[in-house]
Known about the structure:
Blueprint: H1 5-14, H2 21-42, H3 73-77
Amino acid sequence: MMIDLKTIKHISKLSRISVDEKKAQKLRVDLNSIFEFIEKLNELKTDNVQPLTSVAETTLKLRPDEVHSHNLRDEIIRNSPEDNKDFFVVPKVVE
């Protein structure tokens, strides 16, 4: 797949990016080299290759979920800007 200058100009117009002739030529060369590389990757046979989640084959250290603080509700509500026993009261933002 080869990209021509007309396509570069069209893409720049769609994305509302101003591109002069010099930049358009460089973009054309860069995009064509990217597409050439993609075509090379498409030639690889990957049928029996397992997908990777990471290049480093390590397992994560797991830790148990433990609750270290209990019933902090009253302490949290005490920080409310207005006095209220049930919930946090904050200034109105939207009218």
